[in-house]
Specification:
This protein is of the alpha+beta class. Helices cover 29% and strands 18% of the residues. It has four helices and five strands; from the N terminus they run H-H-H-E-E-E-E-E-H. The chain has helices spanning 2-6, 13-23, 29-41, 111-115, and strands at 45-48, 56-59, 65-69, 75-78, 102-105. It is globular.
Length: 116
């Protein structure tokens, strides 16, 4: 959790394990993955699914949405936009826990490459 709070670049589980292991070589891959699962279940960490790539993790902190680059897979924080409340939606018998917008396209670094 401390690593995620300090690094807001949306690391993968493998990147988190490598960084934590550099500080404490006794940490195991299983412990890292189990802790991430528990933090996600507790609502302290958000798992950001990136199609075709490893999931990335984000300490929740301030509410925000995400932009995912189609080319490089980079995940960026986006300003929070309010979405319609569950009461105004036709969810049927579903119960909404949370809602997040995911913007997809080309990041500022990849967009110029696409234009040429």
């Amino acid at each position: 959790m401390a690593f995620l709070m300090e690094h807001n670049k949306h690391p993968t589980a493998a990147e988190i394990f490598e960084a934590v292991n550099r500080v404490d070589p006794r940490s195991s891959r299983a412990t890292t993955y189990n802790n991430l699962r528990d933090l996600v279940q507790a609502g302290l960490v958000r798992e950001v699914a990136v199609e075709g790539r490893a999931a990335r993790f984000d300490a929740k902190g301030v509410r925000h949405h995400h932009f995912i680059c189609d080319r490089c897979g980079n995940v960026e924080d986006m300003e929070w936009y309010d979405v319609p409340s569950p009461a105004s939606s036709s969810l049927g018998k579903r119960t909404l826990r949370e809602c997040e917008l995911i913007f997809r396209g080309l990041c500022a670094k990849c967009a110029p490459l696409h234009a040429s």
